Amino acid sequence: MTRALEAAVASATQLPAEEQDVLAALLVAEMQSEQQWGELFTASQGLLAELAQEALLEHESGQTEPLITPE
Fold this sequence. Notes:
Number of strands: 0
Oligomer: single chain
Radius of gyration: 22 Å
């Protein structure tokens, strides 16, 4: 465990039990969300590569416009 996490846990132990439970639930939910996001991102790599290739082809064929016009 890192020093930062140790300090956070030490600080959390000073909270009332109900607040510790809320904090624990938030931490678990955040870790699950990060794991799910990582899995979804990994699973979508093929689609993202296809979309990137399509965008490049559209740009090369002049089918795109700049988002910001140069001044």
